[in-house]
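Comment on the following before class.
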Amino acid sequence: LTQIASAQMAEWFSLLKSEPPLAAAVNELENCIATLTVRDDARLELAADFCGLFLMTDKQAALPYASA
């Protein structure tokens, strides 16, 4: 989360926003990142999302190695 909210990423987002088709999506992404940075439980929420996506059983999750 710290890396996503860094100045380096902000520069990259600015570059992406210079492309009109991407501007709205990048603005929405930046708003979501800003919301996460002020949440006290942001780290816990990100960990829960990761767990839900990759650590559940193959019937409940998108396992990265199951796509082969």
